[in-house]
Design brief:
103 residues; alpha+beta; Alpha-Beta Plaits; 4-stranded antiparallel sheet; 3 helices; elongated
C-alpha cells in the first residue's frame, strides 16, 4: 500500500545532527524499515518535507517512522501520514462511486 507523509522537523535541533542520525539509520538498514520502499523523500529549507512510501504492512510503516522518533525523541514538530493512490487511478473510482451514491 502506498502512503504520503508530510512532516516538520523540530527547528531546535542541529540539522547536521539529524543528517548524521539519518546516515546511521540507513547504514544499519533501519530506514527504510524492512517491508518499506521509499519512492520519494524531499526536504525544504524550512525543515519540512514529504515522503512517498510503499509499505507491506502497518507494522513495517510504524517501524519506518518510529526508528526516527526513538533515535531522536522530539525530532518531529508535526507528522501526518495517509494512504494514497495515483490520481489517475482515483478519478474513475470517484466517478463510479458518485454514480452509485447519486443514483
Amino acid at each position: 500500500m502506498r502512503f504520503i507523509a508530510y512532516f516538520e522537523l523540530n527547528p531546535q535541533f542541529d540539522p547536521s545532527e539529524l543528517a548524521e542520525i539519518g546516515v546511521d539509520l540507513m547504514k544499519r538498514k533501519l530506514y527504510p524499515a524492512e517491508g518499506v520502499e521509499t519512492l520519494a523523500w524531499y526536504m525544504a529549507p524550512g525543515l519540512w518535507g514529504i515522503s512517498v512510501s510503499e509499505a507491506e504492512s502497518v507494522e513495517a510503516l510504524m517501524n519506518n517512522v518510529n526508528a526516527w522518533r526513538i533515535a531522536k525523541p522530539g525530532i518531529f514538530k508535526f507528522f501526518k501520514i495517509e494512504p494514497a493512490m495515483d490520481t489517475k487511478e482515483l478519478i474513475p473510482i470517484a466517478v463510479q462511486l458518485a454514480r452509485k451514491v447519486k443514483g
